[in-house]
Amino acid sequence: VQLQASGGGLVQAGGSLRLSCAASGRTLSTYVMGWFRQAPGKEREFVGASRWSGDNTYYADSVKGRFTISRDNAKNTVYLQMNSLKPEDTGVYYCAAGLAFTGWETESRYNYWGQGTQVTVSS
Q: Rounded to an integer, what distance in angstroms lies between the CA atom of residue 90 and that of residue 70?
């Protein structure tokens, strides 16, 4: 499985961005798709995850109510819609895919990772 993340950029606080994670090499219908981010000087942290089927979604408290994960089955692509962005949302965002039933907030539960896309939120 190859994952290609895109859509990052520079946005003012309060603005929105939509990140994309295009998957190739395998159908991801049974996978959990996760999003993580890493701010400068900090460890990578969990943002949210969702089963490809969309029947179960889980978000970090810091983004709950502002970020939404969705998917386009025809394009084999998962999206992270980010609204009401804050400067503390700045970082490199990564998408990941895994088959674990639990522990979605843990990096080791994911088998495949995208290369990351930079999101910068200015105050």
A: 21
3-state helix/strand/coil string of 36-69: EEECCCCCCEEEEEEECCCCCEEECCCCCCCEEE
Residue type for position 120: T
Give pLDDT tens digits for 31-50. Answer: 999 999 999 999 999 999 99
pLDDT for the residue 37: 98
pLDDT of residue 111: 94
The residue written with tokens 């970090």 in the block is 60
Q: How far apart, in whole angstroms, are the C-alpha atoms of residue 111 and residue 98?
A: 5
User: Who's near 42: CB < 8 A, 6+ residues apart?
Assistant: 91
Residues of the chain short of pLDDT 50, as ranges, are none
- The CA distance from 41 to 35, in Å, is 19
